[in-house]
Amino acid sequence: MRSRASSGSSCVARAPPSPSSSSSLSLLLVDFLDSITSSCLTSQHCPQPFAVQLIPGGLFAIGIPFFVKESPRWLISRGRRDEAIKNLCYLRKLEYNDPYMVQEVNDIDLQVENDRTAVGSGFFAPIRHLFSRGYLFRRMLCTASLFMWQNGTGINAINY
Fold it and tell me: Is the pTM for the entire model greater than 0.90?
């Protein structure tokens, strides 16, 4: 087998690619969290990593009522049609009398009515429907067992 040196090609050492700003930021965050958690084994600072993880979740929970609109389909299923049309207009950036909006609201009405007649209304109606149909229950059981066995393998320890 011929080596690169004997073949006449020159090997040029290349510098590693420079990290992007997002990877630099993530490395800085990892270093910061590591410095916080390094004292966990010797002192009373163990709640700090948990508190750091609560900051994004807390900001998200506080911001939900101000920035996230309720689903038009859910609002129509609860009988709040005017509010659903208002939210749908906001999401689609269209007027309420636009033909596309009229068609979409009619489609949602038909789907909600179809769900009511096929499954029933109320909180426990879908659960009753699931357990009364054998093929749906078998699908749910297969999916739930896949999740259970996946967690049993310890794959989450590898992913995180």
Answer: no
